[in-house]
Amino acid sequence: MKQLIEISKELLESRKAGYIIGYTEDKFHRTKPFIAHTTNDAEKLTFNQKAVHNLAVYLTRLPKPKEGKIGIVAKGCDIKAIIGLIQENQIKRDDIIIIGMNCNGVVKDINIDYNKENSQMKCSICELRTPKHANYIVGALEDFAKSELTKNILAEFEALSAEERWKFWEKEFEKCIKCYACRQACPLCYCEQCIVEKSMPQWIDSSPTTKGNFAWNIIRAFHLSGRCIGCNECERACPVNIPLSLLNRKMGMVAMKEFNYRHGIEPDQPTLIGNYNTSDKEDFIM
Amino acid sequence: MRIGVFTCHCGENIGRTVDCPAVSKACADFPGVVHSEDYKYMCSDPGQNLIKQAIKEKNLNAVVVGSCSPHMHEKTFRKACSDAGINPFQVEIANLREHCSWIHDDVPSATLKAIDMMRMMVEKVKFNGPLTPIRVPVTKRALVIGGGISGIQASLDIANAGYEVILVEKEPSIGGHMSQLSETFPTLDCSQCILTPRMVEVYQHSKIKLMSYSEVENVEGFIGNFSVTIRKKARSVKDELCTGCGLCVQKCPIKKVALSEFDEGLATRPAMYVPFPQAVPNIPVIDRTICTYFKNGKCQMCKKVCGREAIDFEQQDELVKEEVGSIIIATGYKLYTIDKKPDDSPIHGYGEYGYGKYKDVVSGLQFERIASASGPTSGEMLRPSDKKVPKKIVFIQCVGSRDEAKGFSYCSKICCMYTAKHAMLYKHKVHDGEAYVFYMDIRAGGKMYEEFVRRAIEEDGVKYIRGRVSRIYQDDGKIIVKGEDTIAGVKVEIDADMAVLATAMMAQTEAPKLAQTLGVPYDKYGFINEVHPKLRPVETSSGGIFLAGACNSPRDIPDSVAMASAAAAKALVLFGSDMLEREPVVAKVNEATCAGCLYCKKVCAYNAVEAKEIKDRNGNLIKVVAYVNSGLCQGCGTCNATCPSKSVELLGFKDDQIYAQINAFAEV
Amino acid sequence: MEEEKFEPKITAFVCNWCTYTGADLAGTSRLKQQTNARLIRVPCTGRIDPVFIIKAFEKGADGVLVSGCHPGDCHYNTGNFHARRRWIFFKQLLDFVGIDSTRLYFSWVSASEGKKWVDVVNNVINSVRAKGPFLGYKNLNKETELPLVNKN
């Protein structure tokens, strides 16, 4: 981590960066988000396999520094969220300095050390271990144990009948307590007033009825279709363990299959929603 | 909320299938409704007075009327309520006629449905806010697309009223199909003689900017404020320098390659050509596909003989942008060609008539060219194959029309008349000739039309046979026509010298594409739709865009001219005021909740959304939000549905209004 | 006791310029249809948010029909293209969650297609009738005694 700390110190000292959003180790040897304002703070920056948090979520929540840009420590997958935010006018590329980290996989549960079972599924299929679009690239690439890719988890799920699928989701959504942790953890959920907070009219029940839970989760997945970058922080944040990654991954598959599109790869790539193709399929339309 | 509900019987139209008194009674119990009554004809004067009275007496602030379609009378009721003091946008219409009484038979279920529909509108109107119309300036210039008789008439009418007109015509000359005709019914006027003065008037008119050999490429904007991009195709001749001397045309060596479009393929034209002698403008065009210079860089004969150095081989298509306030579509028609090989026509039939196979089987327009004094035979009645005078000629009506199996289901309207005309022209020139007409019906509904047809039969001895033709084939130089005479009940076979097919009138091939460019609807035949066939025949559903002539449906010259003047009048109505009041159904952004993602900007088809910076008092940027220019917004609401936080809402169709309607049709 | 025959409730979201006018034409031509559908008029299919569809199902619709102008013919040029893209996602999402997405129908009906509109509406009503009431949502609605119809 020497390289990371050196770069951060240099950025803060020269006031090129007003503050740096990164990770640090806490008292219990877990990793947590940390904002370094001074060179002393920068000494505490770290990066390891427990750095699972998507720090891009802070880019829309923190006030801009008085002087200098915002530095951010980011994995390849996190940068996709940053690009998404740039495309949606939430930040300008020139206003941030991305310290890209070569990544060796991250955990699911930060209380336990990294191992094959405690590893994110996204890491086993990751193509951005060396991040793109970063101002600096730091760290060494090492082999790591990949989680057992329950291949075709989506295909397996879709092979179930509509009845079975409904029962599955009914069971899951009954658990939902409408805490909106999924929304808070998502870097692309930055709406000032979320649709669920609109009461005139109230499209989505804010009370945790199963009906309202269905509506909330469906609409959130829909609003993220073509925008979700698959960081899975929503699933990790959910206190009742609803498998949100299934939903969001399905939307990602639809974007890939129907439109050959992945979000957050290039800032000048035309977005999926907001554009159209005259040859979009319409076999389902009478 | 004090809502008044008015249920119209529409005479028997609603009243027969929907129990209007019951509907009115049910509505009286809806929460928020303080007045409910029904009446025979709500749109009539007494009906409207009932509404106005109730507004005053019961202090209503919103009105729901159960009546015919809002497309019919929404404006009527809005005006009535506005006169009585309510904002016109706090009025909603439930379509109890077109969407209920006219499509159902069972009175109890239709009545229940009517009550549901009224409830939905009552719930919606509770969330209607008052809206004020938006005023935009009007550009007092018109664009006329198409330089046939309809386009010419419309242009002259508008120009003579003092406004500038841009007339765009895709062919090198204006005049359209009328310039190809020899004589016109029912007067047998020489077509060119009555048309050419008009064409010249257009050319010389100070207020008409004629853009011939040009096509409309793109149209943006809306009523009163269109921005049009026109492609001026390259003639290869500088029109400011050309005097129309015609020397280049004379000297062009490529004379026999191309078939003349004007002569319907019966003659050839050079690579450098003017479509016909009386062309306006009289400036030639080089057909670059066959010109030797463009093929291998040689020749340049035209350039050598041009005394004004007007030939310009380097000339490129030019894109010209024009601002206009109104557009008139006058693109006319084309005739259904029925080769064995289908061209761009969706129908390919009648191969059994041998058109395209036998030279002496010709179409209506081809016959016009043969009969015309300026045509390939100089007006002599000579048949195409061997230039002999045909002694027996057969005319066949309804080729492609009134035939759902092989052609179009509609009637092309002009064929009965022009066939009679053709037969008469033939008989006037070949006194001892025999003319036969195979017909299904004779449609001669215009002024002096019936008399015209009778003249053909009684004075000129044209023989009319009621029946269809099954086959035409050639035998020993003769055209054998096999048909039937249904009145006599016998089969008929005629060994004619020539056959003329009265082929169907179709929409132009590019008409659907033009309609899409303009954003106006068209039907399955490519004819452009009018808003209402009876009451609004020259308007399209896009404000400011009007129709004239055969682009809308098959039509003869008198009706086309009348329609063109009508369309011109509509444009002049628009130009009559400096500011236009637009419906305020536009989008509005709630800047407090907008996060500035600008997806609304991406989906807006009219560039009506811009980014707006919100700054604090010291000039520091707080955030960037979306902002809708209500002058440009057309009110589609795509932004509203795209916005995840619903920060941009379409006034008149807001989320709460739609929610109220969904909710009203609920499990009771 | 005779059980009341199930009659489906169909909420239809239609665009003003094409389908609504096509439905008007069906009315003018007196083409008969079944009474189960209620039309909600919007200016363009672009205005239709999938959240409307979910709310319609929540509020008791057994089937939902969404209809607009043919691609290329939208009165507002591109509204239906954006709508179509949304629908591609939404239909697959509903399907994935196990909500019977076959109860959701889409169609393109132009202003001159009165006959087609009648066919579409009757087909939808018949198909949904055959499927029966939308029990999934009806059962969800029984979870609380929350009143369904706003009474204000």
Report on the architecture of this protein:
The complex is a heterotrimer of chains A (286), B (668) and C (152). Chain A has ten helices and six strands, in the order αββαββαβαβαααααα. By secondary structure, chain A is of the alpha/beta class. The radius of gyration of chain A is 20 Å and the shape is globular. The N and C termini of chain A lie far apart (59 Å). Chain B is α/β, with parallel strands linked by helices and 668 residues long. In chain B, strands 10-7-6-18-29 form a five-stranded parallel sheet. In chain B, strands 20-27-21-22-23 form a five-stranded parallel sheet. The longest helix of chain B is centred in the first third of the chain and has 19 residues, at 107-125. The radius of gyration of chain B is 31 Å and the shape is globular. The mean pLDDT of chain B is 92. Chain C has a single domain, classed as 3-Layer(aba) Sandwich (Rossmann fold), CATH 3.40.50. In chain C, strands 2-1-3-4 form a four-stranded parallel sheet, sandwiched between helices. In chain C, helix 1 (16-28) packs across helix 4. The longest helix of chain C has 19 residues, at 79-97. The chains are: A alpha/beta (286), B alpha/beta (668), C alpha/beta (152). Chains B and C meet through helix 4, helix 5, helix 17 and helix 18 of B and helix 1, strand 2, helix 2 and helix 3 of C.
Annotation keywords:
heterotrimer; A: 286 residues; alpha/beta; 2 domains; 11% strand; globular; C: 152 residues; Rossmann fold; 4 strands
A few lines on this structure:
The complex is a heterotrimer of chains A (286), B (668) and C (152). In chain A, 33% of the residues lie in helices and 11% in strands.
